[in-house]
Design goal:
Blueprint (H helix, E strand, L loop, with lengths): L1 H4 L4 H19 L13 H18 L6 H15 L11 H32 L14 H5 L36 E2 L17 H19 L2 H4 L5 H4 L9 H10 L19 E3 L5 E10 L5 E15 L6 E14 L13 E10 L28 E2 L18 E2 L3
Parallel strand pairs: 7-8
Antiparallel strand pairs: 1-3, 2-4, 3-4, 4-5, 5-6
Length: about 400
Amino acid sequence: MWAESHAGSPDRLVNALSHGLELSVVSDKPSEEPSSTPEIPDEVWEQFARDTERDIRGSAPKEPSARARLVTERLRQQEARGELPEGWRTNPAQGATERAGRRRRLWTVIGVPLAVAVALVALKPSLLPGDPFGSESDTAATSPLPEETAAPTGAPAAADPETSTLDEPFAGSPALRWADGASGIVLPKATAVGGIAEDRVETALQLTKKLLVGSNLDPKTVGGGHPAAALAILDPKQPELLDDLNRSLATPDEDHDPLSMFSRFDPADVRLVGDVIKTRGRMTFKKGDQGGVDVRADYTFVYPVVRTDGSPEVARTIVRRVLEVELVDPARYVATPGRLNVLRHDRDVGNTACGIHDGYLHPNFPSAEPTGSPATGPTTDPYDRSRELGADGSEPCGTVSRT
């Protein structure tokens, strides 16, 4: 039977015999060596079968419920109508990953400049606004002061004790923050007063400023020349004033001192450092006793100078002037139109030699021997603009606490 079924197939016969021989060998002569593969317990196989069945069941596709199909159809219709936001199908985990990536890129862009800024502030805290560490910043220490609109209540605070130089002649002085020259003479807004028209008030203010500039800021006047610009503002019909001033300029002495009205330095002795004179003060007006505009001006001028012998040492002289003038109504009083009557002119000079009456200011330099007579007046702060000046126009020559 077996032979018939395999007749004509020699190869099959050989294979069959070979398999039979192999089975026979295995069954008759089993290997005496134990198998190196450990036998797996039945309970392990059972647990493996259960886990495999559960995983297969969990991963098998499920038919969506009727509610799920309804929700899917509604979302599909909303998407077709454009009612859903862009990217609504995105995987939430993928969106969170993208947001985290954007945050990392943002911190990269912001973090590096921020780290640099922190390092710069650590090296120089004054770069921070508002002075958070309690020390005045460089900008605040040198920024211009606002204009003076009322009488100060005291002297300005002490400045850093810096030495003035040719490049920084106002170093260590409160005047460093004052305005330069004529820009420090800020006129109040002109308004009609006591029946006097606004334009006449404006004329009185402008003439007062010209007088202050010509007397204290004009390079010709400060350099010891004749103060022609200032004299041209004064009314020639005012008794004695112009005669007295002209005489004091021509032949100065103790009783005829041009410094009572003008700030002048001897060009053979000193010269101004640069072309900046610091100025600070205020101006007010009211109706005058002669039917005109009465203007009161209170200004301090700071002059940095050096000796003409080539020394680089800088000294400062501080001159405060209180001036009261009136633009008289020429229709009612004897007066020249467009000229001022001087009612009062007081002065206070800080850092000039005492007892010299040659018509010039003589600054004292720290390295030089004092000149002139010994000081007889008290020690004062020349920057203190809250002090009242003498009503007689004279101040005793004293010493100054700073320049």
